[in-house]
């Protein structure tokens, strides 16, 4: 796993304390780390080298700031440079009406899904009648897929399942869209390799026929070094105007975006972030920069939390905690909400400084056991844990396939947690808080609450 | 075997030229100098081999150059291919029937045939979105059928719009049997029905196509576990193979994908797709290093016959632009 770049740089630059200035010599090790981090994030070899050279040029001669660790200072320079590079150009689309957009890319990059998502986003942004045209005559059922999505999102749709003449389908689609008074028309095309001359010629012809205002390359966020060849060839053939980066809801570092940006210079306009048609967003360079550098992605974490955690439920929970009548049923509900956000590892990965940390083996299993224990209680027992006598505990242990010791441990720790809440309730700004901190310290020593 | 390599090289032709273009040093009869070493390093990184494998190959070439300053580019390439082949040693996956006694297996294997057990050998194809699972299912079905087996497809991607239709279209085109429901149906139910049908009809293989899912989505990973559970109601050993379909043009994240899928579902192998472009699929070396999951097939094109068994020697030599050795 990756250590956070900040930590690596801090150690590479530890000797810089007391040195007045950053120089080529005292930066060498640190810049090597930067290069490795970029390569590990799938930034293209050459692009990484050029980037490091640029950062070096910026760093050399800078005075080492007082009060800031040199590692942090260098990370900031790198981060800023990365944000600047990634964010160059505008994410805005052409103001033309009707707006014609051509979607191109490799197989499986997400063109058809992105076509529907983009149309939906345009609708949200005030286009009254987005229209999609299916030009993928090769992949079986690709046209069906687009038609289904179009119906689902109430978009205009045209395609031709008989014709093998893609430019003609584009033409007919354009006419159909205009007849339907569409103000945005998106052409979905087949996936193609950038070295497939026939298919590249075909999409060039399509471009010439429909004269799109935007030509967007759809690229998988996990793309490797190949990104450079792909982007260059598509750009040379079609004069791209933008990039859509897909599957960013995974944990790919997204270095391909920097490669593509550096090679083509076209702005990154949108990112795909999920399975649903609503999971599509304008590109934010600062988030991707943090991600490429392995610095965590706090904004995305917060968004993920917002997306998955039911606001009302969270408020109800907070209220319960405040009143200290938090029972095992609430605890279970809370655990399930956390689980909805993804694996513990993926959540950790988004936290700054924790991206390199491994969730201890068995933590997820421990959580599952805790859940099983609570599931084996009657609703009454969950609400009133004090009911649990020896025979009940035995039954629960048997029912959940655990041992009585484990049930006891859970109850003990739950008791401590309840106590903590009572203390919190004890005084809004009095001794309660301090007492709680002490309590927490004590709990930390005992290994904390299972699965939390 | 030679026919296979031809296919391999045809698919890899552009790869070879892309690598050769970058590493002129590898193909001349010039001695390998510092500039040439830098070129080789760049070529290996550009092929997604990552820090570890690139480092290992480069270190051996450097050592060889130190011993013999007159080492020629071609010799360096031979050496590089040998190191890569060593790194990947044992990574060739071959399908075997699970239920036959080993003696029968060995006997039949000499004919090069796949040996199906009494109940269908179930192969589940899983992976992230757009990696090529559905296409691989169809091509694999066609391949097994060519080899004389009876095959059934299970269209368990009930999530993506028209994924079922896509596999049905393939099945129609290649004349394969398929069990499918509709989009939105319970994928595990489809798997159950397909398994039942395959057993009743005595099919040799059942190929289970699943919906694409990012490895970070816990709930979708649980759906996979459910598919496994229902298959096991018919045969506790099913699925006999669980292959991760990986897009060969991806970089380091494919290692993470393999790691997580392996941990949560238990993989038995890989299929690496889309190697007919200029991608060299170097990430597969990193996956092999870490997880020791054999690579069963690689995808070298859009035609059914373009799904080819993975051969370490051919691959390693193709990466370095060398012609294959006859074997």
Structure notes:
- Chain A folds into three domains: 84 residues, Four Helix Bundle (Hemerythrin (Met), subunit A) (Up-down Bundle), CATH 1.20.120.140; 197 residues, Rossmann fold, CATH 3.40.50; 117 residues, Orthogonal Bundle (434 Repressor (Amino-terminal Domain)), CATH 1.10.260.
- Chain A has an eight-stranded mixed beta sheet, with helices on both faces.
- Chain A is α/β, with parallel strands linked by helices.
- In chain A, strand 5, helix 9 and strand 6 form a beta-alpha-beta unit.
- The longest helix of chain A has 23 residues.
- Helices cover 56% and strands 10% of the residues of chain A.
- The C terminus of chain A is likely disordered.
- Chain A contains 20 helices and eight strands.
- An eight-stranded mixed beta sheet of chain B has the order 3-2-4-1-5-6-7-8, sandwiched between helices.
- In chain B, a hairpin with a 7-residue loop joins strand 7 and strand 8.
- Chain B folds into two domains: 86 residues, Four Helix Bundle (Hemerythrin (Met), subunit A); 210 residues, Rossmann fold, CATH 3.40.50.
- Chain B has 13 helices and eight strands.
- Chain B starts with a helix and ends in an 8-residue tail after the last helix.
- Chain B is an alpha/beta fold and 327 residues long.
- The N terminus of chain B is likely disordered.
- Helices cover 51% and strands 13% of the residues of chain B.
